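Regression report. Comparing outputs from two consecutive submissions.

Submission 1:
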Amino acid sequence: MFVLLVLLSASCGGGSNSSNPPPEPVQYVYQTPSAIGDGWQVGSLSEVGINQAMVETTINRILQNQIKYRYIDALLIARNGKLVFEKRFRTQFDFTDNWAGNRDVNLHVLNSVTKSYASTLVGIAIDKGYLPSVDLNVHDYYWDKQPIANWTAEKASITLDNWLTMQSGYLWDEWTIPYLDARNVHEQMINSPDPTKFLLDRPMVSVPGTTFAYSTGVSYMLGDIVRRASGQSIAAFMEQNLFQPLQIQTYDAWMTEGQIHMGAALYLSIRDMAKLGQLFLDDGVWNGQQIVSSAWVAKATEQRVTEPNFGYGYQWWMTTFTANGRAYQSYYADGFGGQHIFVLPELNAVIAFNGSAYTDEQREQRSVRQILEQDLIPAMLAAP
């Protein structure tokens, strides 16, 4: 662990007695989040115009383990700059904690939500002059890995922008084979003798900047290029320039090549995870301090890739949610298992989830889109 400076079900023993019906389940009653000195201003649902009864109904559906509301480990809502709802459902560790040896149940693996942190570190490195721009040629930072296999004119032209938008041109498919399968190309990379060279040596299949190919390996390299440019470890750079200003005191992570894997490795509390969403909603400012430039926030959340079912910027996704007959634009961070930071600028809101749906069967039993479109966004539109 790095430090800077479920619901328990009750069951009756013995056989059942049909003459004594089971007790009514305890109904959730809303509580305002605690002020714990972590930088969040706290408030109530009603004072920011969110219908409390509707949110309570959502939480009861989660607690009752209803279909589409399963495998949710935590939920947080912030609106108008205030943390107004926080509920953690997870009470015990799971297999993902073993990856980092995490022993704090409040910390949750972020998986690919980590990518949005990697993008932010790149933006800070550019703001501070460690990196010149997104137009730099990435291979200028990897002379120690020469000769690079499958060298072509296209590979020589790969820029940082191409890495940020997942349009590197490499032969890379990590979606066909499940992530927990050793045959997955990302698993092959992190288990190789030299993961960095594994990525750089990949064959090219398209001109950089033309084809989207999701790559956790490329996101790992975003952290690595910041490390090389700044002369600091990823942990030191991130703590000094992002976590300390955001008042994030405790986190965990797993390592590749002795450094934090910025494609998937971070573990944070949901309160700390959601701070990134609030930082971006407020144009790079947290509690009056400009942490990353507003210009970078605008670049990172601009849709640069358009696919049939999603848009993509600099390690942020784009989508539209429809509630009460109206569409609301959102950019968001998304992680394997159900880790999400949704930013909804039109509603001045951030909604964060942790989850544990790692198989297809589990994912079918949870719908974050349904919860947003039928529950939480309508609660923001309804009279208190």
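Submission 2:
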Amino acid sequence: MTKERMTLQVLSLAGLVACVILALWGWRTGVLTSQEQMQALVHSCGAVGVVLFILFQAVQVVVPVLPGGIGCLAGVLIFGPVWGFVYNYVGICIGSLAAFAVARNCGKPLLTMLFSEKTIAKYSRWAEERNRFARLFALAIFLPVAPDDFLCYLAGTTEMSWRQYTAIILLGKPFAIALYSLGLTVVWQHLVTLLQ
């Protein structure tokens, strides 16, 4: 394991620990069990709360610490279904474009630092088929079944143009984000009801 990969894993672990601590604090104070308290906390920050949420969504694509679905759930719970979707969409699209830009500048060695060899081996075959990659990538972005963060980085190491990539992200993300948001909201509400 390279020194860079170890450093990234330590940072990811530190981020995960911070998220767990924050989640425990949120649970104990009721912020995570009461939608009203969660909304009040974020809304008390005004526009800064919205900007921080969008920034969180963008960063979690570039530096995946939590599954993206958790951010989608938080967006809907805090801002409601319409604005939650909008803020999720904006943040995730910004993050997806940033991941592509980072990979475009750093190349394939970055993939081995950020992702497992198994994931790289599984999806790198897609990149070997130039004509087919764009279609497979678009389908994976549209349907929430593949590791989108990795695929955004992988796309940055291919010859895909910025225009084509941006079109796929902007047109493909809404369905997946809406599906994640709706599905996870139903699961969350069911879980909170069971725990009360």
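Expected: both submissions complete independently.
Actual: both completed, but the second showed a warning that disappeared on reload.
Relevant detail on submission 2: The longest helix spans residues 68-106.
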